[in-house]
Amino acid sequence: MTDVEADQSPPIVSVSQLHKYFGKNEVLKGIDLEINEGEVVCVIGPSGSGKSTLLRCINLLEEVTSGYIWAAGHEMTHPDCDVDAARRDIGMVFQHFNLFEHMTILQNVTIAQRKVLKRSKAEAGHMARQQLESVGVGEKVDAKPSQLSGGQKQRVAIARALAMQPQLMLFDEPTSALDPELVGDVLAVMKELATQGMTMIVVTHEMGFAREVADRVVFMDGGVVVEQGPPSEVLTDPQEERTRSFLARVL
Ligand code: ADP
Ligand code: MG
């Protein structure tokens, strides 16, 4: 791709004037956000500021009240949007892993490939083993989730998402439920994914990860984007008082 073409490629995520109410509670108050292919964006902000709701609106796990969302080639807010097709292209990793406890690790990573992508058992199994290997839990294929540590479970959840070959990955506090000594392994997997060029939106409290891996940090508070920019600016020299006081509490 020439530089000219790169400059012209449209954003992979475009959110415009996104509003979300839960009842009378306006949780997202007009979010505008564009993310380019290959970009790693870390979303930070206090608890209750709307970070999870923003991620969940992007793949329509929450109904959008008003506004426009384009993601991974799909106009999510179009009334005729094929949500299943869109979610195939958008991987999501949750704080609490959300593995199927009664299935083996291999089954966890093959089921959506089989059911949604209609891959053969052999094909899905091959992809699963490859992805599990790449996140360092290749030897766990026959185990049940209950036999794994939190860090291993989260790496399985990442492998499961990657096996669908998504164009975009959403992470909602992927390390917040982990014992401190297990956080590093999961962050290392995410860093490697970023290095490979995956487009990622990561809600996180891991400021070290944001500083090192993010191309851009978005600070949210009270349902709005207060400020955003490269980590070297937002985390080191924030322009807004709300960002400064948040960082003073977490850094
Ligand atoms: P964050 O992820 O930044 O902590 P959330 O997006 O989870 O924030 O929540 C933002 C606000 O929306 C909070 O006030 C929360 O109580 C409210 N909220 C989130 N999910 C729901 C829901 N399903 N029903 C009602 N209120 C909700
Ligand atoms: Mg949250």
TrEMBL record:
Superkingdom of source: Bacteria
Primary site of residence: membrane
Reactions listed under catalytic activity: a polar amino acid(out) + ATP + H2O = a polar amino acid(in) + ADP + phosphate + H(+)
Subcellular location field: Cell membrane
Pfam family name, one: ABC_tran
Record-level GO cellular component terms: plasma membrane
Membrane topology: Peripheral membrane protein
UniProt-listed SUPFAM superfamilies: P-loop containing nucleoside triphosphate hydrolases
Family annotation (InterPro entries): AAA+_ATPase, ABC_ATPase_HisP-typ, ABC_transporter-like_ATP-bd, ABC_transporter-like_CS, MetN_ABC_transporter-like, P-loop_NTPase
Enzyme Commission number: 7.4.2.1
Keywords: Amino-acid transport, ATP-binding, Cell membrane, Membrane, Nucleotide-binding, Transport
PROSITE patterns: ABC_TRANSPORTER_1 (PS00211), ABC_TRANSPORTER_2 (PS50893)
Domain ABC transporter: 13-247
Protein name: ABC-type polar-amino-acid transporter
Organism: Natronoglycomyces albus
Taxonomic path: Bacteria, Bacillati, Actinomycetota, Actinomycetes, Glycomycetales
